[in-house]
Amino acid sequence: MTVTPVAPASSSSLRDYVGLARPDHWFKNVFMVPGVVLAWTASGRPSFTPLVTALVLATVSACLVASSNYTLNEWLDAAEDRQHPEKRFRPAAAGRIRAPLAYLQWIGLGLAGLVLGRAVSPGFFWSAFALFVMGIIYNVSPLRSKDRAYIDALSESVNNPLRLLMGWYVLDPGLVPPASLLLAYWMMGAFFMAMKRFSELRHINNSVVAGAYRKSFRHYTPERLLISVVFYATAFGLFGGIFVIRYRVELVLAVPFVAGLMAMYMHLGLLPNSPAQHPEALFRHPPFLVYGCVTAMVLIVCSVIRLPWMDRLFETTIPSGL
């Protein structure tokens, strides 16, 4: 695939700057929901009514911090995006964004999100601050982790456990989420990100163009990316299993749904011109969307119900003599 960069434009509009903030990616903050549900359960299931305001503030804060990171990402990626068959038409790549306004939007959105986050709880604020810092680590040289093979997927997917922490600290139960849960969340995010990288690389189908667009693609091959996908999925299963058996065995009932969702996403990632390249486009695939909503509901139900017989069935005490 040969890509001809678009000629830089001189005019811009409010719509271009809104596009820079990518509000269509705000749906990713749904990863806060399990944190809210688990913290609610760990807190003894208090009334949700006093927490409505905190939940609204937390959602707005998360969206603003995320948009701050997206603004920085697209602005600093403009030169590379001009090498991509679709991303070259983005406002920054097309030359319709002015540097002072881009940096002002980055800082303004980030500060607004953190100020709102401080009103939620100290734990939420520091989790949101870590999300903001990860945007710098991922995008800004000399760190710019997105340019390093495998580190790119791992550093981007750190945002998953950070969002879980943000959801957890909406209630701030005075506890810390189990490390096994955070690690499982991290590996799940890495699975999605590696599958996205695979889809992008196969879609470009030109090693020179791919390497010009993203430096990590100079090392990646489809085979290496699929191997990493298997690694992340396996790690997710192991860490998730530790959490489930130790803290919430009822979630065993959700395992087939989660596994099915991952299999469906991998199927989409293997399609020509895969929607996995653009996660926001997954809303245009009703089967995946419906199955994802069903899986989310099953996870929520399994997180709040108690089934003592399952504790006995999956007893973790090792019999003497073994």
Question: Can you describe this structure?
Answer:
It is a single chain. The chain has 322 residues and is mainly alpha-helical. The N terminus is likely disordered. The N and C termini lie far apart (59 Å). Helices cover 64% and strands 0% of the residues. The longest helix is centred in the middle third of the chain and has 26 residues. Helix 2 runs parallel beside helix 13, helix 5 packs antiparallel against helix 6 and helix 6 packs antiparallel against helix 8. The protein has two domains: 161 residues, Orthogonal Bundle (Tetracycline Repressor, domain 2), CATH 1.10.357; 138 residues.
Low-confidence stretches: 1-7
Residues in β-strands, percent: under 5%
CATH architecture descriptor text of the largest domain? Orthogonal Bundle
The residue-averaged pLDDT reads 88
Overall outline: globular
For the termini, the CA-CA separation is 59 Å
Number of strands: 0
Number of domains: 2
The ordered H/E elements are: HHHHHHHHHHHHHH
Which helices and strands appear, and what pairs or packs with what?
Layout: H1 14-21, H2 33-42, H3 52-76, H4 78-81, H5 99-120, H6 122-139, H7 151-157, H8 159-171, H9 179-204, H10 207-213, H11 222-247, H12 255-269, H13 286-304, H14 308-313
Helix pairs in contact: 2-8, 2-13, 3-5, 3-6, 3-8, 5-6, 6-8, 7-9, 8-9, 9-11, 9-12, 12-13
